[in-house]
């Protein structure tokens, strides 16, 4: 887990802070945060200030630049149509089956905002969290208003338990040091009966899968400008890589294709799993009613039980332990 940028000490001359009536919590200790007149942002009494930067609450260190470089380099690249179609397909269970009042939804790893854009017409309260400020800036410019961008880490979500009616992460958990810790965080911040959706890169032992592994073993060691040049060499062959979205020069621009290639070959960390492994982890996290999109692996949705095991324990303190 990255340590948030909460290094400032309380100012004795500043006005006394008041508790903020928000769903946010300190990602380190999970305690409620305080709001004060100056400086702008939210403060943990133990871990300091989480600032408001360009209108975006930041719960991450300013020096975390790995994915910021990626999105700065693709600032003007709108998502390819095939990427937008993949986003709509992934969100279909949530958009068609979730009912009731307007939902509060978390996109954990929102990137360029393609999923936020799909959900905006639902009339829901959408939070888009990403580790890269440049991704959030790009998404806000492209998608517009009507949602809340948050600078944070999916492995240490800055929200209270049971804050959301639904939470999902499309492909992003695979880039974290511990994908299952991120899944546990999604479950933690989702209310009983709420929805959890994940998309993972599939493990492939065929020729495209082996080619991707070989390319990654070389490209991850290169400086960013050489990674971009390597991506340009791969763009004409994108259709044979296991990207799942179907993006290629046949349906997207060169810039859009390069962005897809880079996100597959440049990051230091990228894990691959089988559908059975991911489903077993979701069940192990307590999720029920698991549904799969067999035509677009690995796409899984599940629901948080209406009564979690720890809730039952609180209701029946005299129950015998198993």
TrEMBL record:
Biased composition (Basic and acidic residues): 305-315
UniProt keyword terms in alphabetical order: Methyltransferase, Transferase
A Pfam cross-reference name: Methyltransf_11
Gene Ontology BP terms: methylation
Domain of life: Bacteria
InterPro entries: Methyltransf_11, SAM-dependent_MTases_sf
Region annotation (Disordered) ranges: 1-22, 301-322
Keyword Methyltransferase tagged: yes
A GO molecular-function descriptor: methyltransferase activity
Residues in Methyltransferase type domain copies: 106-196
PANTHER family: 2-METHOXY-6-POLYPRENYL-1,4-BENZOQUINOL METHYLASE, MITOCHONDRIAL, METHYLTRANSFERASE
Descriptive protein name: Class I SAM-dependent methyltransferase
